[in-house]
Design brief:
With about 280 residues, the chain is mainly α. The chain has one domain. It has 8 helices and 5 strands; from the N terminus they run ββαααααβββααα. The strands form 2 sheets. The protein has a 3-stranded antiparallel β-sheet with strand order 3-5-4. The protein has a two-stranded antiparallel sheet with strand order 1-2. Strand 1 and strand 2 form a beta hairpin. Helix 1 packs antiparallel against helix 2 and helix 5 packs parallel to helix 7. It is globular, with a radius of gyration of 20 Å. The protein starts with 19 loop residues before the first strand and ends with a helix.
Length: about 280
């Protein structure tokens, strides 16, 4: 094993013994799913408290959160299989109905935005930016735990990185072609989401203009995600598909970054000057 490489750590199904055993039926919870669930629960609990501080209805927040989660997971799966694995859809179209067989982070974000717009229109919400701020704050919490799950599953392998101190020494018998010190993009994103959380929590200590956390999240996440995707292994090795040299996530990162720049440097400036 190279000196400068982290060990290949992984967690199998949790717990080691079946949680529920009835006859031949056994229930085990994958570590990734457990961490995602933990992230959602913690985000909702913390979001509930933040909603109170913002003077927003906690009941409305809970209803919105569950609506966003439901639509987000659905669109996350559809985006993953349609844009990352179109050849599988042609061979096995029923995979579209297997909602937990493939999830995309940006697909979940698109689904969440779509659900948010539906909910705020249906509820006749006037201060959409305040609610968007709250949900962005919760999204960062949930995503941090989700990326820890990705780190444990090692489902975002990157290029070989001998000598890089944050490289993971891949040693997966089921994927021997990946063995060696590699960039682990799920691990990198978990670190970056922790940084984003720290920044958001520190800046949340005093009142901010509406939409601040929404725009901050876009500006902090989009450029890093765009850069990290260049480290992904090619599609021929099981990595993400490219369209004209870029992954679907990179195109959406450009859109998200453009949104953040527009609001931060153009929209808010126009509001301040009255132009």
């Amino acid at each position: 094993m190279p000196l400068l490489a982290l060990p290949y750590f992984t967690l199998g199904p949790w717990p080691k013994e079946p949680l529920i055993s009835i006859g031949s039926f056994h229930l085990q919870i994958p570590a990734f799913g457990l961490l995602v669930f933990m992230g959602i629960v913690i985000a909702i609990l913390m979001g509930n408290q933040k909603a109170k501080r913002m003077g927003l209805s906690t009941r409305d927040f809970q209803n919105l959160a569950f609506f966003l989660i439901s639509i987000g997971f659905l669109v996350s799966h559809l985006f993953e299989v349609l844009f990352y694995h179109p050849e599988v859809v042609l061979q096995k179209p029923w995979i579209l109905l297997d909602i937990f067989n493939g999830l995309s982070s940006y697909g979940g974000l698109i689904g969440g935005i779509f659900a948010f717009l539906i909910w705020t229109h249906w509820k006749h919400i006037q201060d959409r930016l305040a609610w968007a701020d709250l949900m962005s704050w919760c999204f960062a919490i949930a995503f941090f735990f989700g990326r820890i799950g990705c780190s444990v599953a090692h489902d975002h392998p990157g290029a070989l990185a001998p000598g890089w101190p944050l490289a993971i020494q891949y040693a997966d018998p089921s994927r021997p072609w990946l063995n060696g010190p590699r960039h682990d993009l799920g691990f990198y994103e978990a670190i970056w989401w922790l940084v984003i959380l720290i920044v958001m929590f520190l800046l949340d200590r005093k009142p901010r203009r509406q939409g601040f956390h929404l725009v901050l999240l876009a500006l902090l996440y989009a450029p890093v995600r765009f850069a990290l995707d260049f480290l992904r292994i090619p599609a021929t090795q099981g990595g993400d598909i490219r369209y004209f040299g870029l992954t679907p996530a990179q195109y959406l990162s450009l859109v998200l970054l453009g949104f953040g720049i527009y609001f931060w440097f153009v929209k808010w400036r126009a509001w301040r000057t009255g132009k």
